[in-house]
Every structure is written in C-alpha cells, then in structure tokens.
Write a structure and sequence with these properties.
Layout lengths: L6 H23 L1 H7 L1 H4 L9 E2 L4 E2 L8 E7 L7 H10 L5 E4 L1 H6 L1 H9 L3 E4 L12 H19 L5 E2 L8 H9 L3 E3 L3 E2 L9 H11 L4 E6 L2 H16 L3 E2 L2 H6 L3 H20 L18
Parallel strand pairs: 2-7, 3-4, 3-9, 3-10, 4-5, 6-7, 8-9
Antiparallel strand pairs: 1-2
The structure holds zinc ion.
Length: 292
C-alpha cells in the first residue's frame, strides 16, 4: 500500500493544499502582503549610509525608521498631465514636490500657481533642462539661476532645492549649487517614467517594488505617470506610508543629519540665497511680463 493511498495522508495533503491556496489568494489580493511577498523586495538596495551629505549639501534619503516618503515630479509643469496629477494628490490628501523647468513655468504660469495654491513644494530643475556637467561656469550659473529668477518674478520667493536634470552632476555642478544656497536632492526610487510609450502598470510596479521608509520617489509630470498615480498612492497609503515634502523630510532626519542639514539650510544657504541676482540681463525665453 503506497503512502498516498492512505485516507488520512490524502486528507492531510488536501488540507495543506487548501491552506496554501487561501494564503496565495490573501497575499495576491492584499497590496501590503503582495509587496512583502515579492522576491525583488528582498534584494532591495539598502538606504544610502549618508542621508544628508554635508560636504556637498546633498539629500540622498530620509529617515529610514519613519514610514514616510517624498513623491517628486520632475520636468513640468506640463499641460497634458499637471492638473490630473494635482487632482489625484488632492484625492489622497498627499503633498508632493515638483522639480520645475524654468522655461515651462514661464509657459504655464497658471499650472505653477495652482500647484502652489494646493500646498505643494516647488523646486528647481534648471531653466531649459540642460545637462549641467561640462558647461562653462557662466552657462552653468545661468542654467540654475534663471529658473529661480522666473519663480521669483511670479512669487517673490526663491527656490531652495535643486535636482540636476538626469541627476547628472560633477564637482563644478555641486559647488555652484552650494554657492547659490541649494540643497541638491537625489532619489532612492526611479520609475523610468519618461519618453514615449510608457506603460502606467510598469510605472506602478517599478515604484512600489523599491519604495521603502524615508524614500525619495522620482516620478515625472507626464500622462502615463498621472494614470499610474492613483494605484501608487492607494497602495502606499494602505501600507501605512505618509507623504511629506522635502522640507518636512529634512526636519525628520535622525539627529546628526538633521543638525547638519539645518545648519547648512539656516546659515550658509540663507546667506547665499540673499545674494542671488533676481534680474535677467536679457530675456532668454519669451515674455518676462507674465504674472501669476
Ligand atoms: Zn528631468
């Protein structure tokens, strides 16, 4: 008589099969468990050792003990997607950070105004989305500073956070950013959500697989991202994440890094921001007369 022909063994195997089936259904239908069961999550890169790099004034990640993330949207404001993104953020009571391109703020001041009015954080992503390494000092300076001038003309305030396009930088880029008083902001999770034919499902998966405590999520102000956003926010909300701005993330850093970041922010950055030129010698991209 083989082992499987015994009724009690058959019942035990059947019972275990049922338990496994129920567990699979529970894991597959619950976003929190589905994310935990994903093997790619087990090999997730560790958070950077230095959360705030004082020498380069660069924020790499937030506090790894806190269940909070910053959602950042680069490259806008775009007419095709900004309002939809704002609508989704509003629905989830989430605040985000928008790394804006100066030229696009000039083209779409109404979208910039709406984003500010809804309580989101605005940051600098250069005037024309230039690749910064290798530029002559004067061109590098203008690339960063002209976006600030556009923002200042609309709001009377300066930008304090910078992300170089493509996150490409060299020592000259970081030195100029510091000289102008910026904190340069890196990211922990990139969805690769730019270019043509982006599948919103891929944006959702790439974002959720890598999101962890203190994460800085790099997304873009494009239609596929706007379509992906409800599922991203819904899942992260169910997993218990809070959505904060970069300024809040800096305030929540562990004590040493918080001290470093705030020392830079309140002293050297504040002084440098006060020295920034606020007028353009010549117009660089169309009308400078638009006001919010
Ligand atoms: Zn960009």
């Amino acid at each position: 008589m083989s082992l499987f022909s015994r009724p009690q063994v058959r019942r035990a195997v059947f019972g275990m099969g049922c338990v496994l089936l129920v567990l699979t259904v529970v894991v597959a239908t619950n976003p929190r468990w589905r994310n935990r069961a994903n093997p790619r999550r087990w090999f997730r890169p560790k958070p950077p050792e230095t959360l705030f790099d004082f020498k380069n004034a660069m924020l790499r990640a937030g506090n790894p003990t806190l269940k909070e993330v910053v959602i950042t949207f680069d490259d806008g404001p775009h007419r095709e997607s900004r309002e939809q993104i704002l609508g989704v953020l509003n629905r989830f009571h989430a605040k985000a950070t928008f790394f804006e391109v100066g030229m696009r703020m000039e083209q779409n001041p109404d979208l910039l105004r709406k984003t500010i009015e809804e309580g989101h954080e605005i940051a600098n992503h250069t005037m024309f989305h230039q690749t910064l390494p290798g530029l002559k000092p004067d061109t590098l300076h203008k690339g960063i500073n002209e976006a600030d001038i556009v923002y200042y003309r609309f709001t009377g305030k300066h930008l304090r956070l910078l992300r170089p396009p493509g996150m490409r930088f060299d020592n000259a880029t970081l030195d100029e950013a510091k000289r102008l008083g910026y904190i340069t902001v890196s990211y922990t999770t990139a969805a690769g959500d730019y270019g043509d034919h982006v599948d919103p499902k891929v944006v959702v998966d790439r974002t959720l697989q890598k999101t962890d405590n203190g994460g800085i999520l790099l997304l873009h102000d494009y239609p596929a991202t706007a379509q992906a956003l409800p599922e991203i926010l819904d899942t992260l909300t169910k997993q218990g994440y809070r959505f904060v701005t970069l300024e809040e993330m800096i305030q929540h850093l562990p004590p040493k890094e918080r001290r470093d970041a705030l020392t830079y922010w309140n002293k050297s950055s504040e002084a440098a921001v006060g020295q920034r030129p606020v007028f353009l010698p010549t117009a660089v991209s169309g009308s400078r007369e638009k006001k919010l």
